[in-house]
Amino acid sequence: MKHIKPRNIRLFAIISLAIIAIIVWTKYLNTDQTPTAAENSRALIGGAFELVNHKGEIVTDKDFLGKYMIVYFGYTYCPDVCPMDLQIMADSLGYLEADEVEQITPVFVTIDPDRDTKEIMAEYVAFFHKDLIGLTGTPEQIDTIKKAYKVYAAKADDTPDYLVDHTAYTYFMGKDGNLLQHFNHGEDPEAMAARMAALID
Description:
CATH superfamily of the largest domain: Glutaredoxin
Radius of gyration: 25 Å
CATH architecture of the largest domain: 3-Layer(aba) Sandwich
Strand content: 15-25%
Shape: globular
Strand order of the largest sheet: 2-1-5-4-3-8-9
Distance between the termini: 68 Å
CATH class of the largest domain: Alpha Beta
Structural class: alpha+beta
Number of strands: 9
Order of helices and strands: HHEEEHHEHEHEEEEH
Helix content: 40-55%
């Protein structure tokens, strides 16, 4: 058997280690540049819209840029889920420092534009928080923002006092209009506040 020189063994080992290092580094770079599922979902929530606030002013998504926004989709005739989540939203702001609250715009978007006029929205939002903005619009405008935020909503029946089945998430949006965090129905307001505080620059 032919004797392999130690120098050749060392050279082979160096080349092998170099190849392994290149493979590992390449995999690291590819992993680092690939968005996670959470990052992909955040990118899919939010977008352009044009609505009317409870003061009768036309507003768009651009009017909310530069501040954080905490958003809930519901309707004023909702018997339990919506008022509970809006109260939780309002309570969560009470756990934040004053300078943190100043950076956040709380928003309530109706999913029932046929009944939720700006006048009704103005009366309703006043029950929860002094800074809460109510947004309504035409059915087409509401459909646009529902699609942007991936919100499901549908009438449960065709009676005059119909209920609306809908998703019940609260969205915490960044200054750039992108989703930072979503909260489920019935979240603990103190825990919600802590999470928002951690996300505020």
